[in-house]
Design goal:
Blueprint lengths: L1 E5 L6 H12 L2 E4 L6 H8 L6 H16 L4 E4 L5 H8 L5 E7 L2 H10 L10 H7 L7 E4 L4 H14 L2
Length: 159
């Protein structure tokens, strides 16, 4: 199974994803590592990505995960069209939607230093976000460990 942890910047994708992968004994794949250099430069300059910027990234990440059996993958996957492109040809996947109140996410983003995602882009992420239908819905307002517990329980119930 491929568990895709998605949500806006600051929702805890990497922190929770690493913990989840350790707990399950699965491979961890950081989606940010598959961004083309042009995307990284654009985001680092505070310029939001457009759909055309995201297609090569999603295609590269899709190619990476197609051969995986059990992996936790992080990817903002903000729109349904992005999730469809990311998961095209992936046989067994579950989308895990990480979210919290906007004020809490903004506080977390303001308090951290990301390698290329400035806090100024958070608003554009919320504007782009299409909450997924049928995903495992996880409120990340609590601790990362509590979020991992909830994800593990939900994955165990998943068909």
């Amino acid at each position: 199974m491929i568990a895709v942890l998605m949500g806006v910047s600051g929702s805890g994708k990497t922190t929770i994803g690493e913990l989840l992968a350790q707990r399950l004994g699965w491979r961890f794949i950081e989606g940010d590592d598959y961004h083309p250099r042009e995307n990284v430069a654009k985001m680092a300059a505070g310029i939001p990505l457009e759909d055309a910027d995201r297609w090569p990234w999603l295609d590269a990440l899709n190619q990476r995960i197609r051969g995986e059996r059990n992996a936790v993958v992080t990817c903002s996957a903000l729109k349904e069209s992005y999730r469809q492109r990311l998961l095209a040809g992936v046989k067994d996947a579950r989308v895990v939607y990480l979210h919290a109140p906007k004020a809490l996410i903004a506080k977390r983003v303001a308090e951290r230093k990301h390698k290329f995602m400035p806090a100024s882009l958070l608003e554009s992420q919320f504007a782009t976000l299409e909450p997924p239908a049928g995903a495992i819905d996880i409120d990340v307002s609590g601790t990362p460990d509590a979020s991992v517990d909830a994800i593990v329980a939900a994955l165990a119930k998943a068909p």
